[in-house]
Design brief:
With 274 residues, the chain is an alpha/beta fold. It has one domain: Rossmann fold, CATH 3.40.50. The chain contains nine helices and nine strands. The chain has helices at residues 3-8, 10-19, 92-95, 97-104, 140-147, 164-176, 197-205, 216-224, 249-273, and strands at 26-30, 42-48, 66-72, 75-81, 109-118, 128-135, 181-188, 210-212, 228-238. A five-stranded mixed barrel has the order 5-8-7-6-9. A hairpin with a 2-residue loop joins strand 3 (66-72) and strand 4 (75-81). Helix 4 (97-104) runs parallel beside helix 8 and helix 6 packs across helix 9. The structure holds hypoxanthine. Hypoxanthine is lined by residues 115-117, 189, 194-195, 211-213, 236-237, 239, 247, 252.
C-alpha cells in the first residue's frame, strides 16, 4: 500500500468495500467516448462515483462517472466509466484513483483504454493501437510527487510496463477476433489544448506513434503497485498538422462511436483470455 494515498481515500474505499458484490478478476478503465461498453454487458451493480466520498468529478463530455461490477466472458469485472484528467486541474494522486481502487479490491489485472491522436502516418481514425511503450517525459515532477523517492525499488519498477503477458493477451485477442490491431508508443501531453503542428512534427521525427492526455500515470502507478497492466488506444483523429482538418473533441467522440463495436469485441476477448 502507498500509505499517503491509502489515507487520502480511506473513507471512500471503506464505503466501497461495504458494497462490492465480488472480488474482480480484471479491471478496465474506459476512455473518451468508449463508455458504452458498460451498456452491453451483464451489469451486477453500478455505483455513481458522486456517491463515494472524495471521488474526483470528471468535467469532460464523454466521461460519465460510474464504477460498475459486471460479468463478462465468464469473469468478474470492475469497470471505471469516466476518468479524471490532469488537464482538468487534478493532481496525479487524484487521476490514479481507479488504480488505487483496483489495488484495494485485490484485483491484479488492469486494462486501460483511451482516445488518442495518430502520429504514425500508417494509422487512420478508427484504428485500435496496442500501447507498447509510454513516454512521460513532461510528467516527471508530478510523478516524483506521486511516487516519491522513498524506495530504490520504485526506480526499477518499469521493467514490466506494460505487462508483456497482458500485451501478448491483447495481441492474441485481436488475432482471434480478426481485428487489425496497430502497435506503437504513446506520448503523454498535458493538455488541455491539442498539440501544435510543430510539436507533432517533432514527435513524428522521434518515431512516436500516438499522443493523448491520460493513461501514462495510471499505467506507471499500476506497475509500481504490481498490477499487470495493458493499454489500448482508439485512434480518433490525425494528430495536429498530419491532416488539414481542425481537431475537436466532437471528432474524438464521433470516431469512438463508429469504432465501438470493434473495440467492444476486442475488450471482451481480452477479458476471456486474461
Ligand atoms: N492529442 C491529444 N490528445 C488526444 C488527441 C490528440 O490529437 N486525440 C484524442 N486525444
Amino acid at each position: 500500500m502507498n500509505l499517503d494515498i491509502d489515507f487520502k481515500y480511506k473513507e471512500l474505499t471503506d464505503e466501497l468495500l461495504k458494497e462490492i458484490p465480488f472480488t474482480p478478476d480484471i479491471a478496465i478503465v474506459l476512455g473518451s467516448g468508449l463508455g458504452d461498453f458498460a451498456k452491453n454487458i451483464d451489469l451486477i451493480k453500478s455505483i455513481p462515483t458522486s456517491s463515494l466520498p472524495g471521488y474526483p468529478k470528471s468535467t469532460v463530455h464523454g466521461h460519465e462517472g460510474y464504477i460498475h461490477f459486471a460479468k463478462c466472458s465468464g469473469k468478474n469485472i470492475l469497470i471505471f466509466q469516466g476518468r479524471v484528467h490532469f488537464y482538468e486541474g487534478y493532481k496525479l494522486n487524484e487521476c490514479i484513483i481507479p488504480v488505487h481502487i483496483t489495488e484495494t479490491l485485490n484485483c491484479g489485472k488492469l486494462i486501460l483504454t483511451n482516445a488518442a491522436g495518430g502520429i504514425n502516418t500508417h494509422f487512420s481514425p478508427g484504428d485500435l493501437m496496442l500501447i507498447t511503450s509510454f513516454l512521460a517525459l513532461n510528467l516527471k515532477k508530478e510523478l516524483t510527487e506521486l511516487i516519491g523517492l522513498t524506495s530504490i525499488e520504485n526506480r526499477n519498477s518499469f521493467i514490466n510496463l506494460p505487462s508483456k503477458r497482458m500485451n501478448q493477451i491483447i495481441h492474441n485477442a485481436a488475432l482471434e477476433e480478426k481485428i487489425n490491431l496497430k502497435e506503437g508508443s504513446y506520448w503523454f501531453s498535458k493538455g488541455p489544448s491539442y498539440e501544435t503542428a510543430a510539436e507533432i512534427k517533432m514527435m513524428a521525427q522521434m518515431g512516436i506513434d500516438s499522443v493523448g492526455m491520460s493513461t501514462v500515470h495510471e499505467a506507471i502507478y499500476a506497475s509500481i503497485r504490481n498490477i499487470e497492466v495493458g493499454a489500448v488506444s482508439l485512434i480518433t483523429n490525425f494528430a495536429a498538422g498530419i491532416s488539414k482538418e481542425k481537431l475537436s473533441h466532437n471528432e474524438v467522440i464521433e470516431t469512438a462511436e463508429l469504432a465501438k463495436t470493434k473495440f467492444e469485441k476486442l475488450i471482451k476477448k481480452v477479458i476471456e483470455l486474461s
